[in-house]
Design a protein that fits this description.
Elements (H helix, E strand, L loop, with lengths): L12 H6 L4 E6 L4 H9 L4 H6 L6 E4 L5 H8 L17 E3 L12 E3 L4 H6 L4 E5 L21 E3 L11 H15 L5 E7 L17 H22 L5 E6 L5 E4 L2 E3 L5 H4 E9 L1
Parallel strand pairs: 1-7, 1-8, 3-4, 5-6, 5-7
Antiparallel strand pairs: 2-11, 8-11, 9-10
Helix pairs in contact: 2-7, 6-7
């Protein structure tokens, strides 16, 4: 049964931040919307079916077509948008020009990015990296981690490791316990759904089917994460993909392209319990 009473449109992010409610932001790297939806429909993600508002994903459009620009937008306050002319109030945004009105439920941060804005309200911002854009293995791989108070990445957090989500969730839960007595913004970039994921089906190629198998693997650990975090107190939870991946759709492969398989992503946000 879904126990998440407050879905996206009803979330008062201003109240959440000013009262110090902890925030969990999970990006399922490269997860296509159609894969997430079909996995739910086929019963392959029972934990997500239990947790998501109304037991479903929202179909949204991402602001970026690969990991770096998508997360740069996310951490600047721009989450995926509904594919409709009218949008619900944003959860948060940078202080706008004086002529722009902002819904009172939107948390307005007077800082260059959301993470710095949260820090002014006493939040500890923590990153559990996944793909190599969070690894610090290269100068570019330090750009996103540098936004946080602290970041964690190990090779076993990355997609070539078949049990990556278990390792990431273990790390995230340990951090949540460490900062249990202060406001926490906990970010996890789940790498299992990023290529390579063919190994979840025992194949050398990556396909829609193997990405669904990767999500089915990650499902139990995501359920464990949310259940343990919310056992003692409420959390704002946001889950979405940063972008999708093309697997031969209209002849396209990969990401960084403006194609519906890449730009259409699953999204959910709720307060639990």
């Amino acid at each position: 049964m879904n126990t998440a009473p407050h879905a996206t449109g009803a979330i008062d992010a201003t109240h959440i931040v000013t009262t110090g409610l902890p925030i969990l932001f999970v990006t399922l790297d490269s997860l296509r919307y159609d894969v997430a939806k079909s996995a739910l429909g086929e019963g392959r993600t029972p934990q997500l079916a239990r947790l998501l508002p109304a037991g479903r994903w929202e179909r949204r459009w991402t602001p970026g077509t690969f990991t770096l620009p998508a997360h740069t937008a996310f951490f600047s306050g721009f989450l995926p948008k509904l594919p409709t002319p009218r949008q619900p109030p944003r959860l948060w945004e940078c202080r706008p020009p004086v002529f722009k009105e902002v819904d009172e439920r939107t948390f307005v941060f007077d800082a260059p990015n959301l993470l710095q804005g949260l820090k002014t309200h006493g939040y500890r911002t923590v990153c559990v990296g996944g793909v190599t854009y969070f690894s610090r293995e290269t100068p570019l791989g330090s750009v996103l981690p540098d936004l946080f108070d602290e970041d964690h990445w190990r090779p076993e957090f990355c997609s070539p490791e078949p049990d990556s989500t278990r390792h990431q969730v273990d790390q995230a839960l340990a951090l949540a316990e460490q900062y249990a007595n202060r406001p926490l913004y906990l970010f996890i970039n789940v790498s299992a759904t990023h290529v390579p994921h063919g190994h979840y089906l025992g194949q050398s190629t990556d396909t829609v089917s193997s990405q669904q198998a990767a999500l089915a693997y990650a499902d139990a650990h995501l359920g464990r994460l949310v259940d343990q975090l919310t056992a003692a107190r409420s959390w704002l939870i946001i889950m979405c993909a940063d972008h999708g991946d093309a697997y031969g759709d209209d002849g396209f492969h990969g990401r960084g392209i403006v194609h519906p398989s890449v730009t259409t992503v699953p999204y959910a946000a709720w307060v639990q319990p």
